[in-house]
Write a structure and sequence with these properties.
The protein has 15 helices and 37 strands. The protein is α+β, with helices and mostly antiparallel strands and 677 residues long. It folds into three domains: 256 residues, Distorted Sandwich (Beta-galactosidase, Chain A, domain 5); 226 residues, TIM Barrel (Alpha-Beta Barrel), CATH 3.20.20.70; 95 residues, Sandwich (Immunoglobulin-like). Strands 3, 4, 5, 6, 9, 10, 12, 13, 17 and 18 form a ten-stranded antiparallel β-sheet that branches. Strands 27-25-21-20-19-29-28 form a seven-stranded parallel β-sheet. Strand 20, helix 6 and strand 21 form a beta-alpha-beta unit. Helix 5 runs parallel beside helix 6. The longest helix has 20 residues. The two termini are 31 Å apart.
């Protein structure tokens, strides 16, 4: 195991750094960069990567005079080492605890700060709390800031974005308090052949700002608003910040290094394994136990055995409106449609060797539900003049009593009803409800405590059910920050995926091409995600192809052959999504172009290429060059439709490339490839 000296102690580390860097080959290696940055920003007395203003004074003027305790170091296992620094204001009793973690096998470091009032009176005003406030030097003039668009229920969700770094500050923030609602808290500071990946783990309203002065880039980010006093005993926290250094041919090397680290140390592993590459079917809303079983048996009778049965919203008491229902906030199966509970369905599903998914939305509470009537003190209100939310409340997960109740209730429900996947949706923007609960000198407090409660709630479910998988749905992909994705997986990357979800009301070309774009952009950051596909033609199917697939049959018996072909496609390529990812064409939502990408697993020396000739493309062929191959090896490529094969060297495939031909527009091609022993 590589030693992890980066935070062992300032003087000792600075003495060791030249030796360590020489051992690694170069001080500018990503590991060397990480160690040097950590030494300069996480250890030295006058340099910490957070900032705030306390009683009108900036933290960099305060911390050197506060009481400090010796740094602590704790091995966490799996090559991770935790390092803790502490400060205390002797006047007010404010305590700061900075917890950092470095990794033996990746050039990554992360940190979170906790601020607690250990005094006997309210603190002075604490404001402008930044989880990251740091500078990166030696930035070339050509440096680019890369991110993606968050999910916004459109074809443009997950569009890759690139901005020149200039003196004018560029800020990013989501809409309404859900962290990936229109924005994306993941960034790549691309310096050409090296750079830094930066992520904010904050399942609420964050902000990040990037600005440049000469060759230095300043990065600030955290909870968007903090202007508050802490009562005695109260503790708040900053967002998690993750920083990963990379080096390679171009910025895609950084994205793939991020994907590797994400799979090794971040993605949930139910039962100790990577999430399954699965298929799932879902009956229509408002059915019954018998209707659900009839629906499933239709698949089984046709020879199709999906991995999961999913019951979506509407299984609780409701008059055919899943959103405006008294069951939202009661969370009890409808006694008429499910007289024996959900367990009647799950037992049957398990008897067929399958698993079961059930939808919840525990944070939203509807008028007339149990929580509405019995615990109004646990609920947060939106604006009184917002008539659209007059019948809605928000369960305050920052209230310890409310959080304990929902944790206990849902955990017991999972046990009693035999759930395998807990699907948590979130279909309202919470920000105004949080803000309405804050006094002028407590701005940001409700949100901060809510975030802590939300994460603790999911941690309780995972502790109580070690094999449980959580689906992080939030109107599609509106809540996929790093803290959330360490606990759950996005099985529905966007609601923009189905006929009744399209903004034009039909399964039109914008939906197909948009889902190609979703795969293109999201794969840069998240290796595992899902969507739904309604057994359309091959172009529709392959436009939606994902590691996890929700499937539906719309057109009766005529759709079964199409479904069979789609399942064969999924089986052939799904494992490749855990490999490296390379875009092979520029991103575009235009219908006149080709779009293509590659997934490659170096360990298995195999991968897949998807290529789409769009609806109005006049180009019969496109020329693509693969990436990441062994230039000295030979590879065999197979067309998944015709089974035709061709052989070429890795060198030729990466430099000369090969021509992909589709005689008709609206064509979707898949090629698998493998190294020839």
């Amino acid at each position: 195991m590589r030693p992890t000296p980066s935070l062992l102690g300032c003087a000792a580390l600075l003495a060791l750094l030249p030796v360590l860097h020489a051992q690694r080959g170069a001080e500018t290696s990503p590991l060397g960069q990480r160690d040097r940055w950590a030494a300069e920003n996480l250890l030295e007395t006058d340099h910490v990567p957070i900032s705030f203003v306390y009683d009108g004074v900036p933290s960099n003027q305060l911390l050197p005079g506060w009481t400090q305790t010796p740094a602590e170091t704790h091995p966490l296992g799996d090559g991770r080492t935790q390092h803790i620094r502490r400060w205390k204001d002797p006047r007010s009793g404010l305590e700061i605890r900075l917890e950092a973690v470095d990794y033996a096998d990746y050039p990554a470091v992360e940190w979170t700060a906790y601020l607690k009032n250990a005094g006997s009176a309210a603190t002075p005003l604490l404001e402008h709390l930044e989880a990251i406030d740091t500078r990166f030097g030696r930035m070339p003039a050509s440096a680019v800031l890369r991110t993606t668009r968050g999910d916004n229920f459109s074809a443009a969700s997950y569009e890759p974005l690139a901005y020149p770094l200039t003196a004018e500050a560029r800020s990013f923030q989501p809409e309404g308090g859900r962290p990936t609602n229109g924005a994306w808290p993941y960034f790549n500071l691309d310096c050409g052949d090296h750079g830094m990946m930066i992520a904010l783990g904050w399942p609420a309203q964050w902000q990040a700002t990037f600005s440049r002065s000469s060759t230095t880039v300043t990065v600030c980010g955290g909870q968007e608003t903090t202007h508050l006093r802490l009562s005695p005993g109260e503790e708040i926290r900053t967002p998690l910040v993750a920083l990963l250094f990379w080096r390679g041919t171009n910025w895609i090397a950084g994205q793939n290094q991020w994907r590797h680290w994400f799979l090794a140390h971040n993605i949930p592993k139910p039962g100790g394994q990577l999430p399954p590459l699965g298929t799932m079917v879902c009956p229509e809303l408002f059915t019954s136990a018998q209707g659900d079983l009839k629906f499933l048996n239709n698949y089984l009778d046709h020879g199709f055995k999906p991995d999961y049965l999913w019951i979506d919203a509407g299984w609780y008491p409701t008059k055919h409106d899943w959103f405006a229902a008294t069951g939202v906030g009661s969370w009890k199966p409808d006694p008429e449609r499910y007289p024996h509970g959900i367990r009647e369905v799950t037992d049957y599903v398990h008897s067929k060797g399958m698993k079961f998914v059930l939808w919840f939305e525990p944070e939203r509470v509807y008028r007339g539900s149990d929580l509405w009537d019995q615990h109004p003190d646990w609920l947060l209100h939106w604006d009184e003049n917002d008539k659209s939310k007059a019948d809605l409340r928000l369960l305050n997960l920052g209230n310890p009593e409310a959080r304990r109740w929902i944790s206990s209730y849902i955990s017991q429900f999972i046990t009693d009803q035999g759930l395998d996947v807990y699907r948590q949706d979130f279909n309202v923007d919470p920000l105004r409800a949080w803000q309405n609960n804050d006094a002028p000198d407590r701005q940001g407090m409700t949100e901060n405590l809510y975030v802590q409660g939300y994460l603790a709630y999911w941690d309780t479910l995972l502790h109580d059910h070690p094999g449980l998988m959580i689906d992080s749905c939030a109107s599609g992909g509106r809540r996929n920050d790093l803290e959330t994705l360490r606990r759950g997986v996005p099985l529905l990357r966007s609601d923009y995926q189905a006929p009744n979800m399209s903004v034009v009301g039909e399964m039109t070309t914008d939906v197909f091409d948009g889902n190609q774009g979703h795969t293109y952009g999201l794969s840069l950051w998240v290796p595992y995600y899902g969507t739904g596909e309604f057994a359309g033609d091959i172009y529709s199917q392959r436009s939606h192809l994902c590691p996890w697939m929700g499937l539906g049959v719309r057109d009766g018996d005529s759709a079964w052959p199409e479904l069979k072909r789609f399942l064969a496609d999924h089986a052939a390529v799904a494992a490749d999504y855990y490999g490296d990812y390379y875009p092979l064409t520029p991103y575009s939502t235009e219908e006149t172009v080709w779009m293509a990408w590659e997934f490659y697993r170096p360990g298995q020396a195999s991968g897949e290429i998807q290529a789409f000739r769009r609806e109005h493309s006049r180009e019969v062929t496109t020329h693509i060059k693969l990436q990441g191959l062994d230039s000295a090896a030979q590879y065999e490529l197979t067309n998944l439709d015709s089974s035709a094969t061709t052989r070429a060297s890795g060198q030729d495939l990466m430099t000369t490339g090969f021509a992909v031909r589709a005689d008709a527009p609206r064509s979707a091609l898949i090629f698998t490839f493998k190294k020839i022993p």
